[in-house]
Design a protein that fits this description.
The chain is α+β, with helices and mostly antiparallel strands. The protein is built from four helices and five strands. A five-stranded mixed beta sheet has the order 1-2-3-4-5, sandwiched between helices. α3 links the parallel β4 and β5. α1 packs across α2.
Amino acid sequence: MEAEDPKEHPPVPERPASPASPASPAGSVRPARPEDLPRLVELVHEHVAYEKAAPRPAGLAGRLGPQLFAEDARLWVLLAEAPDGTVAGYAACSAEFAFWDARHYLHMDCLYLAEEARGHGLGAALMAGVAGLARELGLDQVQWQTPDWNEGAIRFYDRLGATGAPKRRYALSVPAGQPGAATH
């Protein structure tokens, strides 16, 4: 068997010190810290309600914290702060691999701003922070989804110059079972 050229399979990017944006009249963007977890969970629950999704099980902070703040974490959360210092929104990202393109990209799983924080530039600041994070990770693309009914988000992303592609998102629950017991 031939040895593979390591350049053919680049490693998942190293975890950078996440970018923070300078303060502006709209507010600022910074990486989440462990002490932000209670507010972050509040915002997640607001986001879930906004998207009319099923409530999340109890203990979200206990599950998110280790994923977000571990030394080798592959999850990044940027927080939007209003000018008064209130955490008003978040963007959650992870590095993923695009099979068709054979390259890594930054997947923005969520972007949410509390209703009172919308329309003041914090969304654009969060997106700039996400783009900065992608650059720091050596990634040249950010991908995300938004519900097709969320016309405000679609207009916002279109104004940024992002391109969309119609797709339907699926989820499949996988019951616990025998490890490695795949069926075809």
